[in-house]
Amino acid sequence: MSKTCLVLDCFALLYRAFFGLPTTIRAQNGQAINAALGFYNSVSSLINQFQPDYLFVASDHPAPTFRHLLYSDYKAQRPPMPDELRSQIPLVEKMIESLRLPLLQLPGYEADDVIGTITKYIPKDTHCYIITTDQDTLQLASEQVTIVTPNRKANKMFTPELVRHQLGVGPESVPDLKALMGDASDNIPGIPLVGPKTAVRWLKLYGSLDQLLSQAHLLPGKAGSNLAQRREEALLYRRLATIVRNVPALPCWRAGRLNFDQNEVRRTLDSIGIRASVPQVGSA
Fold first, then answer.
1. What residue ranges define each of the domains in the chain, with the CATH number in brackets?
2. In angstroms, rounded to a whole number, what is the distance separating the alpha carbons of residues 139 and 70?
């Protein structure tokens, strides 16, 4: 691979920054800027580290997604965004604009779906790194796509082999796994009495959720009985957990080409109250 593409999960990085830095970090006018500062530091560090040819920022759209229409309790347990974080979104958007990065979001879909679509259309000579704290994206790992979880000491890199090592199944089976054992972060219940070990064992034995459901009546114990009685629920949970890779929009690779004016970025940072260096871009 001769080229590199970074795709940033905007709100995953924003939440990480907001809860990782104190809200006492403020501009002279009293505006909290901890999330904006943390987000910028992450982006700057990633640019310096990877020297990417392309960089996209994917974001959730405020409108309900198709998943909410399928299942009204989807993510219903999550608290509303803190006001001090919400007030920093315009600052972050201003920084993204100054870096000339495409900010991609689409009504009815999540950032993960936008990210999944980008990864589907990566040029053959390009390797894509998804920067996120959301483990749903592990299903996108491939020979051409690596999931990167930012860490202050060392970023954690998920290749297909590492996904298999951590979860017990490959990337392609992640939605099946979540359908069986559930996902508390998205409020997906899963099948009662089916935990990670049982789910992994069944998927290794039968290969997929579809094959498993075809033989569910043969499964022993109460967990097997629960699955046999909840076939439609399992299929619904898998659909909720599956990242869409064909949202009705295509990334413009020319627009994603990393090319910003350092003076413009410096002026934007000064206007927000962030005293940080501007990332250095080489031949990219």
1. 3-160+243-272 (3.40.50.1010), 166-241 (1.10.150.20)
2. 21
